[in-house]
């Protein structure tokens, strides 16, 4: 094999690797950093996530779906999406209300079609109170509202500290970017010093 052919073979391999990396970055996976405490204590500021961009993507053909399997959005999914009020920003919240459902919240308890929703992931800073008016009534009481077709009601797990659908409305299905999969890196925001401390115990935890 001549030197020219060897160089060409390496160049072709490098080009293919770059193209594949760009494909994976653009169409399959995306990195996302948790910017606020709205999903605490399940996701913390300093967590870096891998997001599956294909699982909710519409498929053009059956072959495409066989190669890149997906599924519909389910209640409880943790989703990265374009913020409806500013599509240039990405948000991360949990799917709580599905299209066509009636959703209400009374004393912080979420009801779907009149039935209380079990939410082991939800966290509250203060207890609900029927006698006293909270700082913002939407933290305690909301609805009832009906989720429109092709839209979702999104809420942060940190219910008393989350800018979510209670404040800005529904999230269009077309704004979904992907499902949060796992934490690939996490830094302890409370650490001091020149370099951030790695929160080793959080690495590779599945987002649930």
Structure characterization notes:
Strands 1, 2, 3, 4, 9, 10, 11 and 12 form an eight-stranded antiparallel β-sheet that branches. The chain has a four-stranded antiparallel β-sheet with strand order 7-6-5-8, with no helix packed on it. The model has no long low-confidence stretch (mean pLDDT about 85). About 20% of the residues are buried. With about 210 residues, it is α+β, with helices and mostly antiparallel strands. It has helices at about 5-30, 60-65, 165-170, and strands spanning about 30-35, 45-50, 80-85, 85-95, 100-105, 110, 115, 140-145, 150-155, 170, 175-190, 195-200. The chain has one domain: Ribbon (Umud Fragment, subunit A). The protein has three helices and twelve strands; from the N terminus they run αββαβββββββαβββ.
Q: TL;DR?
A:
With 208 residues, the protein is α+β, with helices and mostly antiparallel strands.
Write the layout of secondary structure elements.
Blueprint: H1 3-28, E1 29-33, E2 47-52, H2 62-67, E3 78-83, E4 86-97, E5 102-106, E6 109-112, E7 115-116, E8 142-146, E9 151-155, H3 165-168, E10 171-172, E11 176-188, E12 197-198
Antiparallel strand pairs: 1-2, 2-11, 3-4, 3-11, 4-9, 5-6, 5-8, 6-7, 9-10, 11-12
List the main descriptive attributes of the protein structure presented here.
208 residues; alpha+beta; Umud Fragment, subunit A; 8-stranded antiparallel beta sheet; 3 helices; 12 strands
